[in-house]
Fold this sequence. Notes:
Mean pLDDT: 90
Helix content: 55-70%
Shape: elongated
Number of domains: 1
Largest sheet: 2 strands, parallel
Strand content: 5-15%
Low-confidence stretches: none
Oligomer: single chain
Number of helices: 7
Strand order of the largest sheet: 1-2
Radius of gyration: 18 Å
Structural class: mainly alpha
Amino acid sequence: MIFQVLMAAIVAKIRKLEVLKALIKPVFYPFYIVELVYIFFQINVFLGNYQFVSYASILKTATLYSLLIPIFVYKLYLPALAGSGFIFVGSILNEMVKHANGGKMPVYPTLSRLTGYFKEGMLDNSSLHIIGTPDSHYKFLSDYIDVGYSILSIGDLFVHSFVFIVFYYGIKAVTRMLNGGNLIESDS
């Protein structure tokens, strides 16, 4: 989810918000710790060690809990509600695809084959994923957005947008606090 944080920082910087001062606030530290664990998991997958994959659901929960801290500290209730809507829509899209494909999400690896993230046979025993075939249903909603270290679906992008929303509005809240309650940004 580091890309969502970077995108939030870029958009905030374009809008002339106090990005660095916001991102070093301790309220974001729990999220950063969870991200470091996630990066550790990704490195292990690259090295062919899949023993941590079973903990992915715990990591997903930890990510959401770590984002509750800035939501409550900066009172980001409306942005969080909107972000929750994105999570809901993304989850529905993902479940729809899995339901149409026997309970598993079809995966179409491309760049990940070159980077070594995806290896032949790694999904043979997966309870969540299968290799996409011409017979797979809803191909345009399955995991085909390959960034080299992860393969995402459109539903995943909706789910991950929650992180972007929380970070962008967290940066905006810190900027407002630093400016004595007044928000000074371009195009607001």
